[in-house]
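User: Can you help me understand a structure? I only have the sequence.
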Amino acid sequence: MHADTVAEDEEKWLAEGIAGVQQNAYYMHRALDSNNLKDALKFSAQMLSELRTSRLSPHKYYELYMRAFDELRKLEMFFREETTRGNCSVVDLYELVQHAGNVLPRLYLLCTVGSVYIKSKEAPAKDVLKDLVEMSRGIQHPLRGLFLRSYLSQISRDKLPDIGSEYEGDADSVNDAIEFVLQNFIEMNKLWVRMQHQGPQRDKEKREKERSELRDLVGKNLHVLSQIEGVDLEMYKETVLPRILEQVVNCKDELAQFYLMDCIIQVFPDEYHLQTLETLLSAFPQLQPGVDIKTVLSQLMDRLSNYAASSPEVLPEFLQVEAFAKFSSAIGKVIEAQPDMPAVSAITLYVSLLTFTLRVHPDRLDYVDQVLGACVKKLSGKEKLQDSRATKQIVALLSAPLEKYSNIVTALELSNYPKVMDHLDNSTTKVMAVVIIQSIMKNTTCVSTSDKVEALFELIKGLIKDMDGAQDDDVDEEDFKEEQNSVARLIHMLYNEDQEEMLKIICTVQKHILRGGPKRLPFTVPSLVFLALKLVRRLQGQDGDVVGEDVPTTPKKIFQILNQTIEALYLVPCPELSLRLYLQCAEAANDCDLEPVAYEFFTQAFILYEEEIADSKAQVTAIHLIIGTLQRMNIFGVENRDTLTHKATGYSAKLLKKPDQCRAVYACSHLFWVEDQDGVKDGERVLLCLKRALRIANAAQQMANAARGSSGSISLFIEILNKYLYFFEKGNPQITSSAIQGLIELITTEMQGENATSDPSAEAFFASTMRYIQFQKQKGGSMGEKYETIKAS
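Assistant: Let's start by predicting it. Here is the structure, written out as tokens:
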């Protein structure tokens, strides 16, 4: 309620002030129209007296000031016309306005006439400006003084005795112009700073907001300075910058210091900043602790790094002035001067310094590592960062080298890179690890030495093992899968032409991923296995029995590593995946002519099948994988092959469902007849498998009949018929045309029986088989003769 009342009062006071300005302006205009100078000065002084109020907020005072300002422009035009026509001497007019009763109207009128005085060139501009800036000291009320000096700045900006200006005087006049603007700036800043002490403590926040709205009045002076032609690098370095910084540091006001430092950076050229870096940076540690130094320093570094990027020819200047060393030193001093500076602020400074370094000195890895080292020093002795803003900045800090170099190998050379990562909490460590992997995948970076792989896996340890204190229960299942799949993809990016080094890489990866725990191994072990098998293929044919201290890289050695790795996966337990990997290894060992190794892998696969795979569907898949792999093996002697095939056929016949049994048993027939292998063509055992499959199919039919009162599908018989045809064509003497004919008749009888159920897919399958037989008969030649006796009807 109190705030509403104050606002209403302010509106009323403003309305009264505007009314006073308008009324006096009206009489002033009448006097101007009648060329009555005396009355014009009288009413203009009364109009300007409205600006003496202390009751308005800066915002409302500005409205009132603008009304008076508009009228003063008209008054100035009148003065110019009067002096031009010779009705009045500008010198007399300058003296005359000084007789105004109150000091504030007097000074506004003096500035207005002063503008005309300078324009008339009857006196040197520097003398008039010096007089005006000195006399303005007469107003020490912060708000009134600020607006008066703003008016002085406004009317004088195009009348400074600058080089090339029509008001340029002697050789030193440019110094006078600079001195005038500097003096006005210093006085305005003092008034602006004093505003915070006007009024009760409880309104301090409101006053700070009001002060912030007036900051541009002070900042315009710096803009005017930057536009003066005479302010060359030497003048800026020796006079302008030291004077401005002296005022900034001495005012000891957080708002003023932050704004003015920002102003300096924005309005003066990048080249000047580069050449006066030491002077500019020396001011930062002297600023108040509450000043947001990180933002200002970051803007300075960003500006200079953009300057370097846009003009490569200026890079030698950066080296000449040792820009990196100066920035690094300044940031260190700022952090030292503010022991309570939040971690996020310090890290933000280092992010900007690193960005600057990567743009200006991309070839200096030592500089990059130095920045990371300084960040580690700042964070040392602290707990892991919990502040999300700080961790976000750390991620930005660590991502910058990856983006710049597009190569993780370069980042791995930075000794402080992992030390910075150690300060991240577990979840952010994972985020950063994913960023690193994404960088590798995006740039298809090949990591080619075991040392680099060791360093890389240390960086991404958040993904490959449980971190201390990590709660896995909180992890989203989909996120976890995506993280582990990214690690699996990463493993395939590790490669070295040198086989010894490649083996070291594999051992390094194995060491890390086996610490991953049961949840991770199913994702990461397969990638490691296939990485190792790639090396095995490269080594194919090498002797596996070399002995001595320095045993070279051999397939046998790699298979030992693979056995240990898959065993760890088997203990998870993850039997189906382990079985597949054992079979892959067995096939690779077969190609390397390592019979004992291949036999061992098959043994492990069968043990897994017996002891761990209980689900009937998984058993069916597993037995078909075993049969398929065994069929491709050509290394086993008679005894070992018989043992394994016997096991496979035995397990096939023990499957839970009869149709599954039947299909697995007829698949086993291929184990006894392999086209591209001499000696593995046992027609009798093929026939035994097919006959056994027929018996099982028949039993399945009977079971279906007993359970449902109708015979089941005859598709199993048709599948077996197709196997008969396959081996018949391959020349198995045990598979005769009469046996095939008998099977065709059996199927036909079953399909036409009373209890037969219609099965369109089986009927189509049989019809297709019959068409195939007919096609082979019509083909002619030896194959046609073979099929001649078979009736396909």
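Now, to help you interpret it: The radius of gyration is 46 Å. Residues 543-549 have pLDDT under 50 and may be disordered. Let me know which part you'd like to focus on.
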